[in-house]
Structure formats: structure tokens, C-alpha cells
Amino acid sequence: MEMISLEYPAIELPEQLRNRSLSIAIGHFDGVHRGHRNVIEQVVATAKRTGGLSAVMTFNPHPKEVLGRGDQYYNCLTPLAVKQSLFAELGVDLVLVVKFDHDFAAIMPEQFVDEVLRRLGAAQIVVGFDFNFGYKGQGNAATMKALCEPDIQVEIVEPLYDNGLKVSSTYIRQALSDGDIELATKLLGRPYELAGTVVHGDGRGSSIGFPTANVDVSLPYVMPRLGVFGISAVVLGKSYYGVLNHGMKPTFNKEDIRPVLEAHLFDFHQAIYDEPIRLQFHSFIRPEQRFSGVDELIRQIHADAQQAKRQFGVE
User: Fold this and answer.
1) pTM to 2 decimals?
2) d(C-alpha 31, C-alpha 18), whole Å
């Protein structure tokens, strides 16, 4: 899979890709959830059927962040590098990353079709039913169809529902905020994941018999609610089950600090400072709480670990 950065008005593919038939899925695709995959899989299937290339066009940064209508969109379910990896798993040939700035936000729907899609040589476009584009979102899926056809075919994918609610990035963000990990997993079609690096902590976990990997997350992920979770972690090329505390460590910290991620991995005893680690969230065990002392904390951590082991079937 190849990633190509584009910036309006200089919309142009590398020479070796010109004159190739492109089937393009368009959207921000934060989370690459089950609904997004319906759109992307249709593009991949169309490209295979027609002998062309499948492409995903996404925008960076998030349009709402640029337009000042959603500071929360700085944090993502899937930062750009993670989205690219998921697109590759779905069989996409090209990822077209369009820089979203105020100049791009000001173009009219007709310009988007003529000066972006036609210039790229698009043959088929696939969008979700709620897709909007152009200045102030004036264009929608029906507009796209009217402006593109007959020379560019447009397919509009209907929404995917779960228990009467549309599968969406907003719904998943809310599930993570609520600690509803099972729902987030169901909507994503996979466990929610964070990637980071193991860093030095205060060493308190080892001193009480529960050594932890302190994880620094540099990419702008959406973080789940504060509390304790059943997780799996991929480190040094292997996967391990464990428990993770996302919080302020209130038993020891009396002042407000930045929330930290501390993962205790079962039957794991290696030093992994500065190693990359991926955390997958499987269950919410309990909210974070302050304990009266170290002994009460140790008993609760043991109970948390036993609960997670039962859930994973690894007792």
C-alpha cells in the first residue's frame, strides 16, 4: 500500500499512477469501525472487479478541529498512522491524505469534484449516506452523485445500526468515556487499542508485588475513562494478558497530576524500558478509587487480577 500526501490546489498523483482507474472511498474514517469498513470494502471489491486501484481519501487534520467546531477532535480513535495500517489490512492500494486547511475548506462542491476527483482520475466514488463536502458542507452524497455522473460512478452506502443506533465514531467515543469497553469493541469490530512506549515510573508497583509497565502514549488517542481494565498487551513480539490502571493514583498522589497508564502483565518478568507496546482493552473492571492504605490497595489489585484472569480463562 502506498500513502500519498496531497495539498490543494496542487492535486496530482505520481506519474506512474496517472491514467490508472481509481475507485476512491472518501471520509475521515476515525476508528475505521464496522460502518467505515462497509464503505472501504466496497471500493476494494470494485477495484478488483474493474482491474483498477482501490484508494481511500482521508483528511488531516480533522475538519472540525481546523474549523474550530470541535477541539475534542484533536484526539483520535485511530491517529493517521494507525488508520493507514488498518486500511492496508483491508486491501487498499492507495491512501490519499489531503491536507485540510482553510483554503481547502473554502472550495465549492463543484470545485472538489472537478479540481480534486477528476484531476485524480477517479472512476468510482464510494461515500457514506451522511457524507458532506465543500464550503460549509454544502454538498452531500446526492450532490456528489449529481456532479460526478455519468463519467464518475457514485455509490452511496447506507448506515449500519446497532440496537437502533448508528455505528459511528461519536458513539464509540462515548462508549469509551463511559467505560463500556464491550460496546466499543462491538462497534469497532475489534478491541480498542493504544500504542506507546514503556517508560520509567516511580517503582511503587514492584515494591508491593505488582510490577507495572508505565506507558507513555505520544500519539493523540482518545483515552478511555479513568479506572481499571482487563487488557492484552503486545510487547517484544508476544501477547500477554493483564490489568491496567488509567488514572491519577489517588492513594499516593494528593495533588492533581496527569493521568497515567500502568499495565501489570500476568507471568511477565522482563525489563522492557523504552520498548514499544500495544494495549488492547477487553473489559472495564472498576472505577479508580482511593484506598486507606497500601494493604487495602494490594488486596484490591489482587482481586482485579483474579477477575481479569477469570474473564480471559487463564487462571
Assistant:
1) 0.91
2) 30
